[in-house]
Design goal:
single chain, 432 residues, alpha/beta, Urease, subunit C, domain 1, TIM Barrel, 2 domains, nine-stranded parallel sheet, 16 strands, globular, binds zinc ion
Amino acid sequence: MRIYSGFLVHPLDKGGLEYIPDGALVVSDMGQIVFKGTRADALRDYTDIPEEQYDNAVILPGLVDTHVHLPQYEAAAIGTGELLDWLNTYIFPLEARFADEEYAHIQSQRFFHDAMRLGTTTMSVYCSSHRRATEIAFESAFHAGLRVCMGKTMMDYSAPENILSSAEQNINDSIALAKAWNGAGKGRLQYTLTPRFAGSCSRELLRKTGEVARIEGLRIQTHLSENPSELRYIAELFPEHTSYTDVYFAYGLLTEKTIMAHSIYLSSQEKSLLKAHHCAIAHCPCSNRFLQSGVMALRQMLNDGFRIGLGSDVAGGSSLSMLNEAKEAAESSKTWNIVHRGQEMPAINAEEALWLATLGGAQALGLEDVIGNFNAGKEADFIVCDMDEIMPHNSSFVLPENMISRLVYGAHPHVVSKTVVQGKEVYKRHRA
Ligand SMILES: [Zn+2]
């Protein structure tokens, strides 16, 4: 057992953050949180246990990235243009390189290491379209100690030949990978069926994906309603369907284990379909701006009752930092107000954005009973943020909400000094 003491920030199930300035977490040898409260109570009830005490630091639940592409990491912050051209110019050639096992290995290790350095403990990941590279990504995540939901990106048309495979091959590879990895690492690793989007999957592949998801009870992740030219493309490809969401509905891809990235331009009928099937949304504001895709009405979607997490969507998004993504979510909600004068809605503040990047992400991935805050019984995924980096002791603004605002808006690349998953330290910052 171990006691971790410092300034605890605990996202509440009903929304909002609880602050425990002289707080402590007690973590069992099995990696579970057995106590969350004041340090005084922890020291009284748990004696003779080693304690790690953090001064001028904030202890937060680990950050959750609900949508990210591992093979695109090398292209982060690179390129111009909108979605479909950007994919062809920058991304597909890069994803093709994952046929090379050594390259896949190096990139996977770097990707997971950098995510943990930035305080991410859970990720929902799209791998390349190669079965072997997906295995390598699982091996890397297993050894890194990270929590991931992940899958081979499935495509069987409308992309370069070297990253396509047949519908049957895609499904066989996915089933084999799921058998090998779903539930591995004491449940840390889970398999997610990953059809890229309706524009690169045949009707046969979409239908088989829906069938496998139903029979095997697997997760699904895909893209929905991201960019206006993508919407026109999907409407041309599927004239028999009333909407983009209806395509996924028809092939059985709308389930309570489905997470849809983006979902910017949804009609009320599409929202009803998603709600009826309890689908979650991965909101990726940094990517939505980088690729000039659009501005999602985040406040409206939250009011509509969607489960929403934040996604870096690297390399559409330019950084793996989920603190940066939280800032982007807050700023994007203000941008929505700027372009919809007269229909303004309350902007998302830093505390809400941090809630979305932690417990919101856990809920979107259906992991709220396992991670997302410090309720006793959950697994101990947390990070320590060194406030010396961004808010000195003598600051005039030491109120908790100001600390969180500074953490979200001033996300320093080295602010995270420690990252813990299932009670195990997976990253520790070393001073030069
Ligand atoms: Zn994406």
